[in-house]
Amino acid sequence: MNDIVPCLGVLGFFVLLFGFVAFMRFMSYRETMQLAEKGLVRPDRTRGNGKDTLRWGIAITAIGVALCLGLYPIGFVTGSEFPLGLGPWMLAGLLPTFFGLALVMIYYLTREEKPKGDKPAEPPSAG
Predict the structure, then answer these.
(1) DSSP string, 16-58
(2) d(CA 64, CA 33)
(3) pTM here?
(4) What is the CA radius of gyration of the chain?
(5) What is the tens place of the pLDDT at every residue in 55-101?
(6) Which residue from 17, 101, 91, 108 is spatially nearest to 56, judged by alpha carbons?
(7) Would you state the pLDDT for residue 52?
(8) How far, in Å, are 53, 60, 87, 90, 91 from residue 57 at the CA level?
């Protein structure tokens, strides 16, 4: 009986999470349909300069590094046999760290380069 309560709690959490996501998608669909009935189009949100990706990447990386620093002493306190005090508990900090670094890399690898220089491009000469 003691094992059922945590299982139901975890299951309930995921049911609530996925239910909320499904509800939000349904509301977005209804909003799009209401706009279509009025002859309007939803503005395109996919275009942007990618700064949000960079911001989230930096924030998630900082959280991951803070977790790594906070969890690192556990290896020395518990006297574990893992090298350098590292162990499975470090995954709680390493996963967000590398996920955040991946977001930062996505920003830098996919951004469009702006032309350098203030002069407008000259038309080709016919000579």
Answers:
(1) HHHHHHHHHHHHHHHHHHHHHHTT--PPP-S-S-SHHHHHHHH
(2) 40
(3) 0.54
(4) 25
(5) 999 999 999 999 989 988 887 787 777 777 788 888 889 999 999 99
(6) 101
(7) 87
(8) 6, 5, 25, 19, 18
* Neighbour-count burial of 99, counting CB atoms closer than 10 A to its CB (0-12 exposed, 13-18 middle, 19+ buried): middle
Query: Can you read off the two tokens belonging to residue 124?
Result: 């080709």
Q: Which amino acid is at 79?
A: G
Q: Which residues of 24-62 are buried (b: 16+ CB within 10 A; e: fewer)?
A: eeeeeeeeeeeeeeeeeeeeeeeeeeeeebbeebeebbe
CA-angle at 75, arms to 90 and 64, nearest 5°: 25
Q: How many residues belong to the chain?
A: 127
Residues 6+ apart with CB under 8 A from 69: 93
